[in-house]
């Protein structure tokens, strides 16, 4: 065991515990359905939406770097207070004005709730075919000469390839922002508040409900942050309208999108979960 093994976080949540806790029932638990497991179960938030060493980079000597998980924890702590204010604003009908720093924090949190989750990684080309990509890189390095080829041979083992693929995934999450952050910054925010009694949002392992292309000014992308509140992209810069959602069909449409796109989804309502599970497309 590496010397730092006992002191590093192992269970990495891709949907923050503070986020998932907001969807719990009166017992402090979530009703959860995992498509691979195939059954509905009642669980605490700490056991849901997490994988072991999801964001860990391991060196050849076994030393583990979990700095990305630590960075996420710091971001989640900052985002937690913003979520509290957004939920309170939506419920009271008085949206807050975010500071520049708060908006930057929120945009980073929102974007990473798409970028950091395994359900997205499973769809990204460079992450779905890592072995082929690694072979291509090795071939280019070998072409540089015998010394380079010898170094490749040292790395080209089962464990070595596993470490390189994991490290590449973590670095891609950390350092490849693409154009999405700029798109988010160019638009305002909107709060969606459910006003119909008995209706509520579910939360999924791919938590952002995207309706349309983000590059289009009228596209929608919503992140449920409470059973009755979701935050999305606004349609005008520097604005934050509160939209009352009174139509159960619209709530159902968002929840079905969450259920279909997510490997795991959860809600505070067992009845809602049973209804969503029954409506899932047959595989």
What does the model show?
The protein is α+β, with helices and mostly antiparallel strands and 283 residues long. It has one domain (5-279). Helix content is 44%, strand content 18%. It has eleven helices and 13 strands. The strands form four sheets. The chain has a five-stranded mixed beta sheet, sandwiched between helices. A hairpin with a 5-residue loop joins strand 5 (57-58) and strand 6. Helix 2 packs across helix 3. It is globular, with a radius of gyration of 21 Å. The model has no long low-confidence stretch (mean pLDDT 86).
Note the topology.
Layout: E1 11-13, H1 17-20, E2 30-34, E3 39-43, E4 50-52, E5 57-58, E6 64-65, H2 67-92, H3 100-115, H4 118-121, H5 125-128, H6 130-142, H7 146-155, H8 158-175, H9 180-185, E7 189-194, E8 203-204, E9 209-211, E10 220-226, E11 229-233, E12 242-245, H10 248-261, E13 264-267, H11 270-279
Parallel strand pairs: 7-12
Antiparallel strand pairs: 1-4, 2-3, 2-13, 5-6, 7-11, 8-13, 9-10, 10-11
């Amino acid at each position: 065991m590496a010397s730092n093994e006992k002191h590093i976080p192992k269970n990495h949540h891709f949907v923050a515990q503070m986020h998932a806790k907001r969807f719990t029932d009166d017992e402090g638990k979530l009703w959860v359905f995992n498509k691979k497991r195939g059954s509905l179960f009642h669980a605490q938030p700490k056991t849901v939406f997490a994988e072991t060493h999801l964001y860990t980079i391991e060196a050849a000597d076994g030393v583990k770097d979990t700095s990305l998980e630590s960075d996420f924890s710091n971001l989640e702590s900052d985002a937690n207070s913003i979520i509290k204010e957004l939920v309170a604003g939506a419920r009271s009908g008085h949206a807050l004005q975010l500071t520049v720093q708060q908006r930057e924090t929120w945009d980073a949190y929102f974007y990473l709730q798409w970028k950091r989750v395994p359900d997205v990684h499973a769809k990204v080309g460079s992450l779905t075919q890592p072995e082929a990509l690694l072979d291509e890189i090795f071939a280019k390095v070998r072409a540089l000469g015998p010394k380079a080829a010898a170094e490749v041979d040292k790395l080209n083992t089962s464990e070595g390839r596993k470490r390189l693929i994991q490290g590449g995934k973590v670095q891609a999450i950390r350092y490849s922002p693409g154009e999405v952050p700029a798109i988010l910054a160019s638009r305002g925010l909107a709060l969606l508040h459910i006003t119909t009694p008995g209706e509520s949002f579910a939360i999924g392992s791919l938590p952002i409900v995207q309706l349309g292309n983000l590059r289009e000014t009228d596209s929608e992308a919503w992140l449920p942050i409470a059973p009755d509140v979701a935050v999305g992209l606004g349609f005008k810069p520097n604005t934050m309208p509160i939209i009352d959602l009174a139509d159960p069909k619209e709530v159902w449409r968002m929840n079905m999108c969450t259920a279909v796109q997510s490997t795991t989804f959860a809600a505070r309502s067992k009845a809602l979960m049973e209804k969503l599970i029954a409506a899932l497309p047959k595989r």
